[in-house]
Amino acid sequence: MTLFTPLTLRDVTLRNRIAVSPMCQYSAGDGLANDWHLVHLGKFAQGGAGLVFTEAAAVSRIGRITHGDLGIWSDEHAAALARITGFLRAHGAASGIQLGHAGRKASMQRPWEGNAALTGAEFAAGDMAWPTLAPSALPVDDGWLVPRAMTIDDIAQTVADFASAARRADWCGFDVAEIHAAHGYLLASFLSPVSNKRDDAYGGSRENRARALFETVDAVRAVWPEQKPLFVRISSVDGSPDGWSLDDSVWLAGELKTRGVDVVDCSSGGISGSATAAKRAAPEPGFQVPYAERIRRETGMKTQAVGLIFEPAQAEAIVASGQADIVALGREMLTDPNWPLHAADALGADTAFATWPKQYGWWLDKRRQLVGR
């Protein structure tokens, strides 16, 4: 089974090709990881995933999406994350951190509070807004905060913030770092002509619009250990007919490969409105897999496919046919944190519970011996 063959990226070997995609939990206090994050992420390692990503961790306080976002802008934040990386490692999973900056999507409500810009109700409860930054002073949509167009110094500071966050992520034991350049957040908003109307070195041509991301990748790769892999998540298409295209993403992946990026994580959408509640036609299972397949085929870059991957046979077909090197599951893992272990059983890769935590496996194997499959 290809899905359960190890994958080596630099000096990190994943035990299988199944990753847990970053999923914001909106449950941190001032950016600090807590018991919720330990249990939330830890159960996926127990459940057999090869790579477990944190939610987007803000590289600065103003880079948060909501007041509940995870952060890594101080050593205190790194210390809170260290026990999580240790737990994941102890249970056989590689640990990944997604480094992000919300850009013009900062100062948002938590999804269950409205999933839009903070309002007077949140202010009355003590959740105040903070300054939002973007390539251009264009709000996400009507009713959203108008961001401040970033100066050259702002861009340089943000690049430095990503590098500092990567240093901390290495210190606290993460095996993989991923730069978040998707879903309309800061770096994605530089890429898209929908949100980037600058007329300087960071706007205009495709090469200029990619400059902020390239500088961020270069700065992170310079401090992220050579033996550890670096991912970049992109919106392969950004959801606007006049925006970032799949052709652009193929070009971008080729450029990222020359800068030491090991895997492109191929998502889509989010340039306008909330990334978690985007208005679109009901998509088909695996609707983003063709993006990962084309980028992989045309650039030789390893890719991670994500989006409505439900069934073990579906995941196996994606990696076995060469459409992607890794499949990432998000909400499906919320419904079944043991999805990888169940997939191994269903596909015949482990029918004796040998890959389950020993505290569970021997119970389940005994039951199967008694009552059968």
- Helical fraction equals 25-40%
Q: Into which percentage range does the β-strand content fall? A: 15-25%
CATH-scheme architecture: Alpha-Beta Barrel
Characterize the main sheet: 8 strands, parallel, barrel
What is the total tally of β strands?
Answer: 13
Give the overall form.
Answer: globular
- Contiguous low-pLDDT stretches (5 residues minimum) are none
- The value of Rg in angstroms is 20 Å
CATH class: Alpha Beta
CATH homologous superfamily caption: Aldolase class I
CATH topology name, in short, is TIM Barrel
Distance between the termini: 20 Å
Number of spatially distinct domains: 1
Structural class: alpha/beta
Helices and strands in order:
Blueprint: E1 7-9, E2 12-14, E3 18-20, H1 35-46, E4 51-58, E5 70-71, H2 75-90, E6 94-100, H3 120-124, E7 133-134, E8 148-149, H4 152-171, E9 176-181, H5 186-191, H6 206-209, H7 211-223, E10 230-235, H8 246-258, E11 263-267, H9 289-299, E12 302-306, H10 312-320, E13 326-329, H11 331-335, H12 339-346, H13 358-371
Parallel strand pairs: 3-4, 3-13, 4-5, 4-6, 6-9, 7-8, 9-10, 10-11, 11-12, 12-13
Antiparallel strand pairs: 1-2
Helix pairs in contact: 1-2, 4-7, 8-9
